[in-house]
Amino acid sequence: MTDSLALDVDRIRKEALRTMAAGPATSPYGLDTERVVSVLNDVVATEVVGWLRYTRHAITARGTDRSQVSTLFSAHADHEMQHAVRVAERIAELGGQPNFDPATLAQRAHTDYSVPDDAALKAMLEQNLLAARIVISAYQEIARWLGDRDPTTRRLIESVLAEEEENADALATLLAA
């Protein structure tokens, strides 16, 4: 087995010319673009609902560890909004329209917007950890579904997934303390 790489640039050039009329270079080969956009809009809804939940929890958290947990919730809220924007940008790249409609966010999100009655830190941590685990499982399935048919979108979802896993680890660590 050799470690060399031999690119057939002529073949690559011919293939690129052939696909020029097919649309943007980042189109999802082998997938229904409308379905990909729909799935991604559900991800946008999930991330916006997560931003809302984390933001509300950061503001209303009570208890002795309030400062530390509130700071964590604020950081996670920032991540959620960044994720929503990145996914919305991908939707636009695919020729779709990002859906930030407040009237449908909750129905399209993979997680819910839940607020504990007493603003207890433990309940907030548990709710956010549950939401993070749901998101992790959903995004793993989305990445598998995308597979090699849309590697650009799959890498985006995997990147968001990695950050969601880090967030879940931080929540689990605080819950265990």
Give the SSE layout:
Blueprint: H1 9-19, H2 33-60, H3 66-93, H4 105-108, H5 121-146, H6 151-176
Can you tag this structure with a few keywords?
177 residues; mainly alpha; Ferritin; heme binding
Mean pLDDT: 89
* Helical content band: 55-70%
Head-to-tail CA distance between termini: 51 Å
Q: What is the CA-atom radius of gyration, in angstroms?
A: 20 Å
CATH topology: Ferritin
Shape: elongated
H/E series = HHHHHH
Specify the CATH architecture. Answer: Up-down Bundle
Quick rundown:
69% of the residues lie in helices and 0% in strands.
Protein architecture, described:
By secondary structure, the chain is an all-alpha fold. It has one domain: Up-down Bundle (Ferritin), CATH 1.20.1260. The protein has 6 helices and no strands. The chain has helices spanning 9-19, 33-60, 66-93, 105-108, 121-146, 151-176. Helix 3 (66-93) packs antiparallel against helix 6 (151-176). The longest helix is centred in the first third of the chain and has 28 residues, at 33-60. The chain starts with 8 loop residues before the first helix and ends with a helix. Pfam families: Ferritin. This is Bacterioferritin. Its cofactor is heme b. Keywords: Iron, Iron storage. InterPro entries: Dps-like, Ferritin-like, Ferritin-like_diiron, Ferritin-like_SF, Ferritin_DPS_dom.
